[in-house]
């Protein structure tokens, strides 16, 4: 539990959960929202990896980024448990994430958008 692992035949990194499952980081951007480098990732055999049941995809770390998908102009803040909250205006984004909020914005590939749930919109910075 709490370990970061990968196999020698794949670049995919996994987080081992307390429930005994391995959770895959869908891309490097999601991984880097949780960790600063890959130094803690341990390589294990493919056989050992196969014995650990696969869980869901890891989502972005709450509060670390603003995200959107290319087919939807809405910008979302990330909450706990992969809950997305629509940031309703650039002014709200600026008050919550600073004037450079656009530099904290990343596209989520549509295939991973379903890993998240939609929560209440953020209409003020209060």
What's the structural blueprint in terms of helices and strands?
Blueprint (H helix, E strand, L loop, with lengths): L3 E4 L6 E3 L5 E3 L3 H7 L6 E4 L1 H5 L3 E4 L8 E4 L2 E7 L4 E5 L2 H8 L7 E3 L2 H4 L3 E2 L8
Parallel strand pairs: 1-4, 3-5, 6-9, 8-10
Antiparallel strand pairs: 1-2, 2-3, 6-7, 7-8
Given the structure, what is the number of helices? 4
The H/E string reads: EEEHEHEEEEHEHE
> Which strand order do you get reading across the main beta sheet?
4-1-2-3-5
- Poorly predicted runs of 5 or more residues: none
Roughly how many Å is the radius of gyration? Answer: 16 Å
Distance between the termini: 36 Å
- Structural class assignment: alpha/beta
What is the makeup of the main sheet?
5 strands, mixed
Content of β-strand: 25-35%
What's the shape?
elongated
Please give the share of residues in helix.
10-25%
Overall mean pLDDT score? 95
Q: What's the count of strands?
A: 10
Structure explained in plain terms:
The chain is of the alpha/beta class and 126 residues long. It is built from 4 helices and 10 strands. The protein has a 5-stranded mixed β-sheet. A 5-stranded mixed β-sheet has the order 9-6-7-8-10. Strand 6 and strand 7 form a beta hairpin. It is elongated and about 50 Å long. 19% of the residues are buried. The mean pLDDT is 95.
């Amino acid at each position: 539990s709490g370990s970061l692992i990968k196999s020698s035949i794949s670049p995919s990194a996994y987080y081992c959960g307390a429930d005994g499952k391995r959770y895959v980081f869908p891309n490097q951007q999601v991984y880097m929202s949780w960790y600063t480098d890959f130094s803690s990732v341990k390589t294990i055999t493919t056989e050992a990896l196969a014995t650990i049941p696969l869980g869901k995809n890891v989502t972005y770390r709450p509060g670390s980024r603003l995200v959107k998908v290319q087919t939807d102009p809405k910008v979302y803040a990330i909450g706990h448990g992969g809950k997305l909250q629509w940031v309703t205006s650039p002014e709200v984004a600026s008050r919550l994430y600073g004037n450079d909020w656009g530099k904290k914005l990343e596209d989520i590939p549509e295939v991973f958008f379903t890993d998240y749930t939609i929560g209440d919109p953020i209409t003020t910075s209060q």
